[in-house]
Design a protein that fits this description.
about 140 residues; alpha+beta; Immunoglobulin-like; 5-stranded antiparallel beta sheet; 4-stranded antiparallel beta sheet; about 20% helix
Amino acid sequence: MLNNKHKKIIVITLVLLSFSVLASSADLLSLSIPAASLSLSDRERVGGFEVDITGGQIVSFPNVPRGWSLSIDNEPKDTARIGGNAIVGSAFLKANFFEDFLTIKKYDGDEPLKITIKIGTLTQISLEERQILLDINKLTLIPKK
């Protein structure tokens, strides 16, 4: 049987654990690229992307596109990178793929969160290539609950 002292220790431990979980989830952010930031034409599709993060890490990439090759690096020095490209043209992506496409964790520290994204596109008929460069000001970051 547990005496009152043990019960108090268990309650205090559970309370402290719940605060640590709340604190860590407050640093999780959903990353989206608004369609307006991409400004793709009707015949333009995304064939590759690179996301570079400083002051944070990649926590999840929930929708791995079929027919893509991906690489994820979460370095120990508060930097992370994810990049990918379509293996075949039929796997190219539309702008809506980038809605809530990545979950990141922002680190507390001296380094502010910086995100840069490079998107490579291709037009279906003319095969014109284009690169879109985005920084954190063109992205949508929403705290995860």
